[in-house]
Amino acid sequence: xxxxxxxxxxxxxxxxxxxxxxxxxxxxxxxxxxxxxxxxxxxxxxxxxxxxxxxxxxxxxxxxxxxxxxxxxxxxxxxxxxxxxxxxxxxxxxxxxxxxxxxxxxxxxxxxxxxxxxxxxxxxxxxxxxxxxxxxxxxxxxxxxxxxxxxxxxxxxxxxxxxxxxxxxxxxxxxxxxxxxxxxxxxxxxxxxxxxxxxxxxxxxxxxxxxxxxxxxxxxxxxxxxxxxxxxxxxxxxxxxxxxxxxxxxxxxxxxxxxxxxxxxxxxxxxxxxxxxxx
Length: 279
Hints:
By secondary structure, the chain is of the alpha+beta class. The protein folds into three domains: 8-106, 3-Layer(aba) Sandwich (Glutaredoxin), CATH 3.40.30; 110-195, Serine Threonine Protein Phosphatase 5, Tetratricopeptide repeat; 198-278, Serine Threonine Protein Phosphatase 5, Tetratricopeptide repeat. It has helices at residues 8-14, 34-43, 61-69, 94-106, 110-123, 127-140, 145-157, 161-168, 173-177, 179-195, 198-209, 214-226, 230-243, 248-259, 265-278; strands at residues 20-26, 51-57, 77-82, 85-91. Helix 7 packs antiparallel against helix 8. The mean pLDDT is 92.
């Protein structure tokens, strides 16, 4: 949108509080601005959640005043404002070559978008979708502490305690010094204590004494899974199925546990194992 005396405050000051505002300084119909104008129009979104475009014709009084305030001496020039302060700029022939990369710098990455979707799903208590999105976000950029901690938190919520350990056990010094890391370790400790309940210990003892009792085996697998010990439960049931694939109750329990693991890599691993047995 072209800047004038009526919208300058809205387009530049207010808008730049929440997004990156790209101000394009040019002279209308000037041949030296044509390539830059075409590149800016093609690459800078007019207005979205993250970026907006404001055009300043320096042959106008308002455009000239803004250019002088920013200390510009030539056109075409592209200036990026954040919170009413210039943070980036391109001039002349650099604009057609570098504008796309500059815009990309201020747009969210794929990991950012996945993180937002994961947080939205988590807020709606859709933990299966949150887990899938968080895992995808972390795979996009495993060096980001915020993505690692988000995934670890959702792993604890979904009782995927093995994955939570994998993420938190090898934390760096900076990560370990953060309060969020300390809170996650506390949550993981509590989840592990809950996973080693008296009920599970009693069932383990009963199954050790009666390994042929499939009802005890089924109850133990369910209790283990509910306590977040999914891999332990699935391994136990798989060992039974290797000996007796026709055991319908054990197979159903195995599949029921798998169906609760959306977003958990164990789901694919144990489905593949079962298909290998069947086919």
